Amino acid sequence: MPSIFTRIIRGEIPCHKVAEDDHFIAFLDINPLREGHTLVIPKVEVDKFFDLPIDLLSGIMPFSQSVARKIAKVVPCDRIGVSVIGLEVPHAHVHLIPINSLGDMDFSKPKLKFSPEEFNVIAERIKNA
Ligand code: AMP
Fold first, then answer.
1. The domain 4-122 belongs to what CATH superfamily?
2. Could you give the CA distance from residue 59 to residue 56 in angstroms, rounded to a whole number?
């Protein structure tokens, strides 16, 4: 069965996309820790991050860098935190989170709620940054 992220890539499930190239796609996390919390995923479905083939492993950071720079332009923050977890969705991905303090990276905290319109606005701002 395809992962929920593969279904997003196939267009079967909507997402708030902020960037895409031949190998990767970035979209807003639906349960964000912070406004602008973004996921970067390879289009190839591989469960564990360190099982990615070396070309994708070495390509995902430059792609994430370009996305992180855009996020930092539009979301006031001290820096962009980076995390790899994968306990919920078995499709390798990088979390990019605008942070001001260590607590902003605490995944056990309640997630923020945004309306579809609010997600659209922040996705467009990041995309066009
Ligand atoms: P983890 O696998 O633990 O790194 O967490 C997976 C992340 O994917 C969580 O932060 C979820 O909120 C997020 N997520 C799950 N489903 C979707 C979706 N359909 N669109 C955007 N983000 C999602």
1. HIT-like (3.30.428.10)
2. 5
Ligand 1 contacts CB of residue 46 (under 6 A): no
Cα gap 125→127, rounded to integer Å? 6
Dihedral, CA atoms, 23, 48, 96, 3, nearest 10 degrees? 70
Query: Which pLDDT tens digits describe the chain residue by residue (129 residues)?
Result: 899 999 999 999 999 999 999 999 999 999 999 999 999 999 999 999 999 999 999 999 999 999 999 999 999 999 999 999 999 999 999 999 999 999 999 999 999 999 999 999 999 999 999
| Contacts of 102 by beta carbon, 8 Å cutoff, 6+ apart | none
Cα gap 93→102, rounded to integer Å: 21
Ligand 1: distance of its center to the CA of 31 in Å? Answer: 7
Query: Is the C-beta atom of 15 inside 6 A of ligand 1?
Result: yes
Residue 50 CA, ligand 1 centroid: distance in Å: 18
Q: Which atom of ligand 1 is nearest to the CA of 31?
A: 12
